[in-house]
Design goal:
The chain has 376 residues and is mainly α. The protein has two domains: 16-170 and 179-217 and 332-351, Citrate Synthase, domain 1 (Orthogonal Bundle); 223-323, Orthogonal Bundle (Cytochrome p450-Terp, domain 2). The chain has 16 helices and three strands. The protein has a three-stranded antiparallel sheet with strand order 1-2-3. A hairpin with a 4-residue loop joins strand 1 (19-22) and strand 2. The radius of gyration is 22 Å and the shape is globular. The two termini are 32 Å apart. The chain binds acetyl coenzyme *A (ACO). The site of acetyl coenzyme *A (ACO) has 20 residues, from helix 15.
């Protein structure tokens, strides 16, 4: 069949005004602004406004957006009961997928996809996601659930609800920068999933739920947990090189490396590397950071010629660990950030929709005679 591209590599399947990637040069921009500038000067709330409105907000607009977001931190009635009926040993990514999906049940008009309504639902999902995640963690560890503090920004409030005490400004800022770096990224697998779902004129909840299911895979957002597991498996810095070479010898992939689009250094990874180094020094985790740099060095000599460099997940593992996140909350953190991107794409899709319905190359048999049951 003509034009078959395994994994849809190189296929342009949508248009966006949100993020631009130049994989050869290692450039990522949100609405034309280099990601580094946003990581240095913006906040997660402002970044989401930027992606949803395709321009930076004025102060009054940002204040109004933030106020609206904070007014939805609190979960709708009954949601907490649903959450605390889940098994305590459930994987947090399954919890996120289930609970974000279930928010539709508390919406009197869940299927409304008029653009303004779709945006409002997205805002409520974005505001609820940190509360859901922190509440589940407190519940599963037998600690009292902490109510959100609407005087705090999304990142700071999440850490407050998770730990029961306000984070230091450094930790809150680090968390916020991580969210900014993870908010949007072109037509990645989970964003594509969200756009595909809503292209049937389904609803915002279904689209975001599908995207969460996609993100948890180890080839996508789940890789940040894979990186941390790998770092835990490597006993010390000097063992890192052999560990990597042994895995490459077996043709195993090293989590946190490689990317379908980037054939140069992922610009998000360079920011996270700086952040990881600082936080590791501040929290007594230099060993973890040094293991990471040794892995990177080994990968550089072994496979950089193939265009394989650290991706966003590699240094986010050390960063999240230093912030104090339990390992299985790493990918759910990515969910929180990416709801901003997914929702923006869903609205973009709805604004100029055409049903996604690609073709498949049938490679099976033809004209096969039906065999009766007793002759098989
Ligand atoms: N470690 C070792 N080798 C790798 C890696 C890796 N992490 N990634 C790619 N390669 C090699 C492949 O073995 C292949 O080599 P070959 O041509 O000699 O056979 C070549 O690079 C191309 O790799 P593909 O798997 O074909 O690339 P693809 O574009 O399909 O996959 C992917 C991209 C899935 C991200 C891949 O690099 C990977 O599995 N990485 C590890 C998981 C990961 O970190 N995922 C997160 C990505 S970022 C994100 O989603 C947020």
């Amino acid at each position: 069949m003509a034009n078959f591209a395994k994994g849809l590599e190189g296929v342009v399947a949508a248009q966006t005004r949100m993020s631009y990637i130049d994989g050869e040069k290692g450039i990522l921009e949100y609405v034309g602004i280099p990601i580094g500038e946003l990581a240095s000067h913006s906040t997660f709330e402002e970044t989401v406004f930027l992606l949803w409105n395709l321009r930076l907000p004025r102060q009054a607009e940002l204040d109004a957006f933030t106020k609206e977001l904070r007014s939805r931190y609190e979960l709708p009635a009954g949601v907490l009961q649903r959450l605390t009926a889940l098994p305590k040993n459930a994987e947090p990514m399954h919890v996120m997928r289930t609970m974000v999906s279930s928010l539709a049940l508390n919406d009197a008009d869940p299927n409304n996809i008029e653009l303004e309504q779709a945006r409002k639902k997205a805002l409520a999902m974005l505001a609820s996601a940190p509360t859901l995640l922190a509440a589940f963690h407190r519940y599963r560890t037998g600690q009292p659930i902490v109510a959100p503090d609407t005087s705090l920004g999304l990142a700071e409030n999440f850490l407050y609800m998770l730990n029961g005490k306000k984070p230091t400004p450094t930790m809150a800022k680090a968390m916020d920068v991580c969210l900014v770096l993870h908010t949007d990224h072109g037509l990645n697998n989970s964003t594509f999933a969200a756009r595909v779902v809503v292209s049937t004129l389904s609803d915002m909840y279904s689209a975001i739920t599908a995207a969460i299911g996609s993100l948890r895979g180890p080839l996508h957002g789940g890789a940040n947990e894979g990186v941390m597991k790998m770092l835990n498996q490597i006993p010390n810095v000097d063992a890192a090189e052999k560990f990597v070479l042994d895995r490459l010898e077996k043709k195993d992939k090293i989590p946190g490396f490689g990317h379908r689009v980037y054939k140069a250094y992922d610009p998000r990874a360079s920011h996270l590397k700086v952040l990881a180094k600082q936080l590791a020094a501040d929290t007594g985790n230099t060993d973890l950071y040094e293991k990471s740099t040794r892995i990177e060095k080994t990968m550089e000599s072994a496979v950089a010629a193939k265009g394989i460099y650290p991706n966003v997940d590699f240094y986010s593992a050390t960063t999240y660990h230093c912030i104090g996140l339990p390992l299985d909350l790493f990918t759910p953190m990515f969910v929180i950030a990416r709801i901003g991107g997914w929702a923006g794409h869903v609205v973009e899709q709805l604004a100029d929709n055409r049903l996604f319905r690609p073709s498949v190359d049938y490679v099976g048999a033809h004209g096969v005679k039906y065999t009766p049951m007793n002759q098989r």
